[in-house]
Design goal:
The complex is a heterodimer of chains A (335) and B (494).
Chain A (H helix, E strand, L loop, with lengths): L16 H5 L5 H20 L7 H26 L7 H13 L1 H4 L3 H24 L5 H20 L4 E2 L5 H8 L1 E2 L2 E2 H19 L1 H11 L1 H6 L4 H27 L1 E2 L7 H11 L11 H20 L4 H26 L2
Helix pairs in contact in A: 2-14, 3-9, 3-10, 3-12, 3-13, 3-14, 4-6, 4-7, 4-12, 6-7, 6-12, 8-12, 9-10, 10-12, 13-14, 13-15, 14-15
Chain B lengths: L1 E10 L2 E11 L4 E5 L6 H8 L7 E6 L2 E3 L4 H7 L1 E4 L11 H5 L6 E2 L2 E2 L1 H14 L16 H14 L4 E5 L7 H16 L3 E5 L3 H7 L2 E6 L2 E8 L5 H9 L18 E10 L3 E9 L3 E5 L6 H9 L5 E6 L2 E2 L4 H6 L2 E4 L3 H5 L6 H6 L7 E2 L2 E2 L1 H14 L16 H11 L7 E5 L7 H16 L3 E6 L2 H7 L2 E6 L2 E7 L5 H10 L4
Parallel strand pairs in B: 3-10, 3-11, 6-9, 9-10, 15-22, 15-23, 18-21, 21-22
Antiparallel strand pairs in B: 1-2, 1-4, 4-5, 7-8, 11-12, 13-14, 13-16, 16-17, 19-20, 23-24
The chains are: A mainly alpha (335), B alpha/beta (494).
Chain lengths: 335, 494
Amino acid sequence: MSEPTTDRPRAGAALPAAARGLGLGEMRHLGLLGALALLVVVGLVTRPENFATTSNLVSILSLAATIGVITVGATFVIIGGGIDLSVGAVMALASVWATTLATQSYGPWVMAMCAILVGTGAGLVNGLLIAYGRLVPFIATLAMLVAARGLAQRMSDRKTQLIQPENSAIVDLSTTRVLGIPLLVYIFALVVVLGWILLNRTTFGRRTYAVGGNPEAARLAGIDVRRHTMLLYALSGLCCGIAAILIMARTTTGSSTHGDLYELDAIAAVIIGGTLLTGGRGTIMGSILGLLIFTLITNLFILNGLNTSDQLIAKGLIIVVAVLLQRRNLKERAP
Amino acid sequence: MLVMKGIVKQFPGVRALDGVDLDVRAGEVHCLLGQNGAGKSTLIKVLAGVHQPDEGTIVFNGEQVRPGSPIDAIKLGFATIYQELDLVDGLSVAENIFLGHEHARFGFVQRAAARKAAREVLERLGHPEIRPAAEVGRLSPAAKQVVSMARALSHDARLIIMDEPSAALAHDEVANLFRIIRELTAQGVAVVYISHRLEEIREIGDRVTVLKDGRTVAVGLPARDTPTAQIVSLMTGRNVEYVFPPRGGRELGEEVLRVEGLTSPGVFADVSFSVRAGEIVGLAGLVGSGRSEILEAVYGARPATGRVLLGGEPVRRGVVGTVRRGMGLAPEERKAQALLLDQSVTANITLGSLPGFAKFGWIDRKRERAEAKRLSEMLDIRPPDPERPIRTLSGGNQQKAVLARWLLGGRKLLLLDEPTRGVDVGARAELYAVIHELAERGIGVLLVSSEVPEVLGLADRVLVLREGTVIHQGDAAELDEHDVLDMIMNGRAA
């Protein structure tokens, strides 16, 4: 069995073992892969000269990396039965805090640590409010969304903070390339792999499914549901911190306007990837495929010079279609 | 009144119904018997409009019908009371009763009218004490059952299907249920009654239809005169019923649990007892006597004053600590409180002892799977594939998986709340054997059951509870069902 949620392990029997190991063999993932392939075909047909170029593919992956890291954290929170609306704002706050002149004076490593600590700290506050303060996740993280964005504006005085030349090591993450691919894409890939391992191979991951699937059963089985819930939000915050480093690298700035509406993109990617908003079921691979679909659409619209408004409409439709298709899959499974 | 013929229902991979015939007359209580997985639930869902049959005919009052949706079924006059109650916890009693056909004018709900009507129905059911404005989520299982019944009545149903209505009820409430059923049948309403308890079927039933493996194996047997042996052999092909493993031969070890003066105001008071290693102690009492609540308090899941000592040391409140110290609970509501339905049998079995399978948080999946397989084989969990999602297993096998969970991790004390609820006769005997096996391994067992014979047959020692106090404590072998019932119902200590 490739993942704890696989109901039909035999569905992927024809795929190579490695693909099954990553959960690609699940039916819904095949659907997502199909959709992705379709978008690639559209790209090749409409923009044969631009689409399949290295620079375009690199720009797609770089674009996906920032939200991608956030999506990994969001997948955990949502499988655990919660929701985190504050991700974009927390990332902005972390980017601002890490690029203040005071922080910058300590050099790039401290800036990176600062972003990670701010992100994790904000996530921890979310987690404490939800797990021990018994606030509804939606409300607690909505409050954090508003407050973190405000704090970021106050710290930066609503100005975009440039990364100083002596700290260009941060920017190197997007400019230095290994095998033609920027370092930040490798960071994204590393986060995905670590996230997958954490979710599928550790007690933490197993407990995440349990807490989201049936909190009462998890509690009576001796799992500390509150502590686990708190850790889930801290993990999401940690991912926001990492994402802040990536966006700093890509834009060479820290700003209170970074990551606007990222929460919606992340949640949409998770949903398209087949994770239930009610918790207890979902996969990292699904979320990442969902995200790539979204990013590819953005890319195709830009390449073809189409209106961004139409792009939003297309994305909205995709969310609905994806959820409708998944619901049909669920029905088939019911005895 | 209702004639079903040759009903076939095919699901992917399973032929759930394979030619079922049923013939129900007006004003009768028609009992449906069969093991778990025999097709009873699917048959009910066909009548309730949840599933559409692939083949076969349903004739109701001379007309061929085909309930295509639950609404169709209700319009035809079919009402179904499910085993797993389907009430909306957040709504009031009155709102639940009239859910789907609210008292409304121009879209506005008329609450006063609804409450008045709800009160009338509840009075008719003999439960005027249930307030129509009360929130359903706060009611006891028995009261929820009454609300479900009230909902069926509010539809003016002509055919009421009851799936194990007595499972959540204590003795006196069953009597009340039967009174209601008799009133209904006297008015010409037909009742299809599903129960695993043969003595109930003898008392309330008129005729019996037996299902086995999706087929009807006997139609319209007289409920009172058909010998038990015949019914059981029709259901199983084997002649088993309540088979308790032989008592005795077990070495009792040290005291594992001592409870002193456990009190939760208004629920139970001054409860003291002890359980030794390898001993099975039973708690007998009605629903509401505090049985389950005492278990929860011992487990740390419910606040109470008094002392709970596990292995001589006081237990602090909180489930995390009690599990770590070697307790386990198989709760009453299996699906809601114990199982991760989407997950595999393996994941469900190892849930309570995950750290034991992990190094630095990394799960050793090979060992986990091997252990789950070993336990599935030992407890004979069927089908023998621990990687299946647990939702595809029958109730009895799910319960075995819950017990298997606590066979791991060196447990000292297990708390079992209604371990055989909703489990068929054959699987019951197996569960009894498993419980004995647990005790033989030196685990102390504290057992709660609504069924007095079960407590007496399994336990070494019995505590009889009435209204939150222990009125008798003694050797199970010295008590019989009649004594215990007398104590429970009349409050007389023997």
